[in-house]
């Protein structure tokens, strides 16, 4: 019975792949009330995101199917898949909205199944996501009032005010889902408190639905948003604001990530930062930048799935989730070490993994748009990311084991390892063949968005008008150099031995023991606070800012209320005064405005 | 040699030094000679400022005497150092650190001991807490005596050491390896149970790869 | 075959230039301090001495692979930098790369080595790594922005194209885009780990920082790659701002001139703390860079 259930669950997890393979070109219309119908079709943009789903879901479902089956979770997961596929396939806003709601509620119910979920976390999650859904609803109603149709199609004839309304409402709805500042509060709480494997889905797949929405915007406003309000420098003016939102999100979230003590919270903040890059690139809107955005979406999905699944395995094996309580797992969990290593190389956007190709396209896109200040912000965020990436690998895997569990842990079960291996393989392959990803995955999407495809002379090469690089050559040179250097060194190594104890350290002549605080994982990043800018950012939390706003509002209300507290004569007099002043102004002005 | 009755500690040392001084480097191949020459041209010094003699290390390194022209330069950690300079008297407490640092250095490694204190306790000869003869605890390659030796003397000592390295003579580390039990027994005599951990030297007996 | 020979020639040239330049640096500093200083070959001796050490201690496999990664990273980086223009030689694989790739490759090795430092378990080493990463965060922003100004000027990221566009001294980017050069100069010094931004690996700062546990031959490998990397970075800046070089002598002359400039700056200033470094980079060079952006992009 259990086995059948699990097999069924795994089969369900394959549905996105099946949809992707079998859909073809057809459209499916489902008549609803009053002449409305639900329209489903599979364009290249949806196909791209469906591909992410198809890759991700089986890999998460495999470890989820381990142990005693959790029927409710399986059911909700199936519902979630249904919702996401529905919103991707939807050809009109109705289907999109229904899918969005299904996704929101099923993911909420999955989230609160974790024992770690607090009331605050759950409330924040559902409030922000409902806000997103209602903004979407509002946006789509405005859209309907402008066009008289729910179909997702370019919005060309509408008035400027109407177009801006749609742009802002939809943009906000999707930015909440992506987690742009200051609308990101639900992400660290949610990703942190969700069941460990479900966090992978949240970060890897569900957040991508927000990006899908953002990428719909260029469809609605063709000519890469430039139709909306002209151009600034060499890019669309409307995207400039969006790009800055993305860049500031990336910078602030990166510093927040550095200061986290909990692995999953760090990953959550890094997710926010990484998607910030994508938002920036979408704001630029040129084919290079959007190509980079799509590439980054792909890489980020793979990387975050890999990292969250791996850390879920570590939490499973050790029960510890803070940097302070882990350490030196490299000997005990080598597979997880490699997974995280590949993951952080991808996350940091280092060559030769594909994160670099994505970064490269985005950087070149920014240079092309001549938005160099944004480029500086992106660069700041992506170099600061090295610090949290180093923490991610140092805290759990290097240094000294800091808890009894970390001293005895063993490698995670195979159902965790298989997805890790698959994802690592995909990342390395994409890194060697960036041209392949461009040709097969990115270009079709660019063409539907009405942008010129980037193209690639060969699978190994990434070519842009600004120059490119060859992934195969890069990998060969680096690998060759590594092998040659290692071989030479090994041949001439002389007498090499391994330290007899982890405490055989240069420690100013002292002998450290197990009680010496040697694991630097916890303190890392603390000294960054001494840098004024970072200190300022870290001293302010969004929650604090929002609470401050509330306080200010209350104070203002209290001030107003103070006017009413006295005896009736006073406020009657006040009312008369206001009336007099207002009518005088009206008279002087000659009518309303 | 240490079991002979006619010399002890630094005397043996001195005798070995003198015995070798007149010798040329016959029997060495070109490669060994080159290696020895390169090694002697570059000495990274871990200066252990144990006693008052440490004060003379500064003028040695700075502009007046400029040891850098001999390729002698300070190292930050024992891992990178070639020469351990013990500058003066050693209390039992410091000796422990010295031994630990010495064992953490990577071979070939040498020890230079400054001042009469390291030779026989010097003016602390009757102190309850000072090591009288450093050579019983770690192998000293070169003594520079005086109380305290001037930088000129230090340079003299360093060049003598360089000369020995150039000729490819086995340094004290070889002696330490061969007689590790004797050294450890001596160390145990002063430390009692308070010995530094064994993992920095116990591989001597196993034969590393 | 040609590529292999060419690569070997580049590596050898880098190494020789590396120890000579660094030897010169030590001489220069010594003369400033009124001493004789070591011979100009001293860095070769030091390096050889470490490579010839008979004992090496490691702290596990990752500790061993760290220096290998950093050496491989250095070799990869220098092979992606074209040394000469209009020549078949000393090109490496630079036609397959670009400037942004090189900037990223510069940090691949140190990050690989950071893993080794971490796996040694020495907290001082990790402290040094954190400082290094922090400094990197500070320097990279103005450095990259300065280079972006050059990339924007030539509308390409290819070093070859940028080099080819600077025919004649009047077209050197140093002349045509002086702000960009001023912007990258100090971050460039920091990326060379030279004074006054050398807090990361300096011997007296947290116990030698990242190198604290490395000894014996591994330290030799680290020194070797450091020398090669120094030259690769110098050549990169020569390519970008001084018009590149068409033969080896010219290359050495230009690189040496640049090196002399950075050395003179290094010798004159005392060391900054990490956070001072970052703060400085985000105020002065970055401010200058923003000015450059405003001048180049907004006002034209
Ligand atoms: S020999 Fe003299 S100067 Fe040196 S430590 Fe002993 S007492 Fe001090």
TrEMBL record, chain A:
The keyword Magnesium does not apply. Keywords: Cell membrane, Membrane, Oxidoreductase, Transmembrane, Transmembrane helix. GO terms for molecular function: oxidoreductase activity. Residues 90-381 form the NADH:quinone oxidoreductase/Mrp antiporter transmembrane domain. One of its GO terms (cellular component) is plasma membrane. It is found in: Cell membrane; Membrane. This is Sodium:proton antiporter. It comes from Allochromatium palmeri. InterPro entries: ComplexI-like_HydComp (IPR052175), ND/Mrp_TM (IPR001750). The keyword Transferase does not apply. The chain crosses the membrane at residues 43-65, 72-88, 94-112, 124-144, 164-184, 196-217, 237-255, 267-288, 294-316, 336-357, 369-393, 414-438, 472-492, 571-592. It holds the Pfam family Proton_antipo_M. It is a multi-pass membrane protein.
UniProtKB/TrEMBL annotation, chain B:
InterPro entries: NADH_UbQ_OxRdtase-like_20kDa, NADH_UQ_OxRdtase_20Kd_su. GO terms for cellular component: respiratory chain complex I. SUPFAM superfamilies: HydA/Nqo6-like. Keywords: 4Fe-4S, Iron, Iron-sulfur, Metal-binding, NAD, Quinone, Translocase, Ubiquinone. Residues 51-161 form the NADH:ubiquinone oxidoreductase-like 20kDa subunit domain. GO terms for molecular function: 4 iron, 4 sulfur cluster binding; metal ion binding; NADH dehydrogenase (ubiquinone) activity; quinone binding. GO terms for biological process: aerobic respiration; electron transport coupled proton transport. Signal peptide: none annotated. NCBIfam families: nuoB_fam (TIGR01957), PRK06411.1 (NF005012). Belongs to the complex I 20 kDa subunit family. This is NADH-quinone oxidoreductase subunit B. It comes from Allochromatium palmeri.
Automatic annotation (TrEMBL), chain C:
It is a multi-pass membrane protein. The keyword Lipoprotein does not apply. The chain crosses the membrane at residues 6-25, 57-81, 101-121, 172-190, 227-245, 251-269, 281-299. Keywords: Membrane, Transmembrane, Transmembrane helix. It is found in: Membrane. It comes from the Bacteria. One of its GO terms (cellular component) is plasma membrane. It holds the Pfam family NADHdh. This is NADH-quinone oxidoreductase subunit H. It comes from Allochromatium palmeri.
């Amino acid at each position: 019975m259990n086995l059948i259930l699990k097999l069924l669950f795994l089969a369900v997890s394959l549905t996105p792949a099946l949809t992707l393979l079998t859909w073809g070109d057809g459209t499916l219309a489902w008549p609803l009330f009053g002449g409305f119908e639900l329209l489903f079709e599979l364009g290249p943009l949806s196909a791209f995101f469906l591909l992410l789903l198809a890759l991700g879901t089986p890999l998460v479902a495999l470890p989820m199917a381990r142990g005693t089956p959790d029927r409710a979770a399986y059911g909700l997961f199936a519902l979630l898949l249904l919702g996401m596929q529905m919103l991707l396939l939807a050809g009109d806003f109705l289907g999109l909205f229904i899918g969005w709601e299904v996704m929101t509620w099923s993911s909420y119910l999955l989230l609160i199944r974790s024992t770690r979920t607090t009331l605050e976390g759950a409330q924040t999650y559902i409030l922000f996501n409902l806000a997103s859904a209602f903004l979407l609803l509002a946006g789509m109603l405005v859209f309907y009032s402008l066009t008289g149709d729910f179909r997702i199609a370019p919005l060309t004839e509408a008035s400027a005010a109407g177009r801006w309304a749609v742009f802002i409402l939809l943009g906000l709805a999707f930015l909440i889902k992506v987690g742009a500042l200051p609308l990101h509060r639900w992400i660290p709480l949610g990703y942190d408190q969700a069941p460990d494997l479900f966090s992978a889905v949240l970060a890897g797949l569900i957040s991508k639905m927000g990006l899908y929405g953002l990428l719909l915007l260029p469809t609605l406003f063709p000519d890469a948003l430039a139709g909306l309000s002209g151009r600034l420098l060499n890019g669309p003016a409307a995207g400039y604001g969006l790009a800055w939102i993305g860049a500031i999100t990336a910078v602030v979230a990166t510093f927040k990530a550095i200061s986290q003590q909990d692995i999953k919270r760090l990953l959550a903040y890094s997710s926010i930062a990484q998607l910030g890059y994508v938002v920036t690139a979408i704001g630029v809107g040129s084919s290079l930048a959007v190509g980079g955005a799509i590439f980054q979406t792909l890489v980020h999905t793979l990387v975050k799935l890999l990292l969250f699944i791996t850390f879920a395995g570590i939490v499973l094996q050790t029960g510890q989730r803070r940097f302070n309580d882990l350490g030196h797992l490299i000997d005990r969990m080598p597979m997880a070490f490699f997974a995280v290593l590949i993951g952080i190389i991808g996350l940091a956007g280092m060559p030769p993994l594909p994160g670099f190709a994505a970064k490269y396209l985005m950087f070149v896109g920014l240079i092309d748009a001549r938005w160099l200040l944004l480029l500086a912000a992106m660069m700041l965020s992506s170099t600061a990311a090295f610090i949290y990436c180093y923490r991610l690998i140092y805290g759990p895997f290097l240094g000294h084991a800091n808890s009894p569990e970390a001293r005895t842990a063993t490698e995670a079960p195979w159902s965790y390892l298989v997805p890790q291996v698959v994802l690592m393989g995909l990342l390395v392959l994409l890194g060697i063949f960036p041209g392949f990803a461009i040709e097969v995955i990115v270009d079709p999407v660019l063409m539907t968005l009405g942008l010129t495809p980037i193209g690639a002379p060969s699978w190994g090469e990434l070519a842009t008008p600004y120059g490119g690089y060859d992934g195969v050559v890069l990998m060969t040179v680096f690998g060759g150099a590594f092998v040659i250097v290692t071989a030479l060194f090994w041949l001439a190594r002389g007498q090499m031995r391994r330290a007899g104890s982890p405490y055989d350290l240069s420690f100013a002549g002292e002998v450290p023991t197990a009680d010496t605080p040697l694991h630097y994982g916890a303190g890392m990043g603390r000294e960054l606070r001494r840098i004024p800018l970072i200190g300022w950012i870290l001293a302010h939390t969004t929650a604090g800012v929002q609470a401050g706003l509330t306080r200010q509002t209350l104070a203002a209300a209290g001030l107003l209320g103070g006017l009413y507290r006295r005896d009736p004569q006073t406020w009657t007099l006040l009312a008369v005064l206001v009336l007099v002043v207002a009518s005088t102004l009206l008279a002087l002005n000659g009518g309303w405005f | 040699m240490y079991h002979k009755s006619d010399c002890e500690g630094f005397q043996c040392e001195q005798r070995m030094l003198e015995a070798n001084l007149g010798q040329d480097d016959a029997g060495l191949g070109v490669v060994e000679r080159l290696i020895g020459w390169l090694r002697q041209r570059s000495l990274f010094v871990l200066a252990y400022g144990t006693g008052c003699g440490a004060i003379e290390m500064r003028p040695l390194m700075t502009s007046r005497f400029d040891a850098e022209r001999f390729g002698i330069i300070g190292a930050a950690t024992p891992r990178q150092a070639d020469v351990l300079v013990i500058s003066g008297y050693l209390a039992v407490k410091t000796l422990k650190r010295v031994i630990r640092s010495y064992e953490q250095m990577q071979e070939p490694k040498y020890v230079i001991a400054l001042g009469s204190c390291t030779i026989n306790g010097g003016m602390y000869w009757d102190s309850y807490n000072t090591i009288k003869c450093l050579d019983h605890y770690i192998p000293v390659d070169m003594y520079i005596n005086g109380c305290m030796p001037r930088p000129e003397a230090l340079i003299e000592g360093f060049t003598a050491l360089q000369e020995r390295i150039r000729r490819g003579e086995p340094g004290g580390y070889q002696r330490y390896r061969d007689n590790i039990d004797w050294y450890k027994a001596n160390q145990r005599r002063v430390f009692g149970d308070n010995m530094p951990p064994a993992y920095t030297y116990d591989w001597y007996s196993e034969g590393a790869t | 075959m040609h590529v292999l020979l060419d690569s070997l020639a580049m590596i050898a040239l880098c190494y020789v230039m590396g120890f000579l330049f660094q030897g010169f640096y030590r001489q220069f500093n010594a003369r400033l301090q009124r001493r004789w200083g070591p011979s100009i070959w001293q860095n070769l001796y030091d390096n050889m001495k470490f490579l010839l050490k008979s004992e090496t201690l490691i702290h596990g496999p990752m500790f061993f692979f760290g220096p290998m990664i950093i050496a491989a990273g250095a070799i990869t980086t220098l092979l992606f930098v074209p040394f000469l223009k209009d020549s078949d030689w000393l090109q490496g694989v630079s036609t397959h790369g670009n400037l942004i790739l090189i900037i990223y490759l510069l940090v691949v090795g140190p990050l690989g080595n950071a893993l080794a430092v971490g796996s040694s378990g020495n907290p001082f080493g990790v402290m040094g790594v954190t400082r290094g990463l922090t400094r990197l965060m500070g320097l990279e922003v103005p450095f990259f922005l300065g280079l972006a100004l050059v990339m924007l000027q030539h509308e390409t990221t290819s070093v070859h194209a940028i080099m080819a566009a600077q025919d004649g001294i009047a077209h050197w980017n140093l002349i045509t885009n002086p702000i960009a050069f001023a912007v990258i100069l100090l971050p460039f010094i920091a990326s060379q780990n030279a004074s006054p931004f050398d807090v990361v690996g300096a011997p007296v700062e947290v116990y030698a920082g990242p190198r604290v546990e490395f000894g014996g031959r591994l330290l030799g490998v680290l020194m070797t790659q450091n020398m090669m990397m120094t030259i690769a970075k110098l050549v990169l800046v020569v390519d970008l701002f001084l018009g590149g070089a068409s033969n080896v002598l010219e290359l050495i002359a230009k690189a040496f001139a640049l090196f002399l400039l950075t050395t003179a700056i290094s010798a004159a200033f005392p060391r900054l703390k990490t956070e001072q470094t970052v703060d400085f980079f985000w105020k002065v060079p970055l401010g200058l860079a923003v000015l450059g952006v405003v001048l180049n992009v907004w006002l034209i």
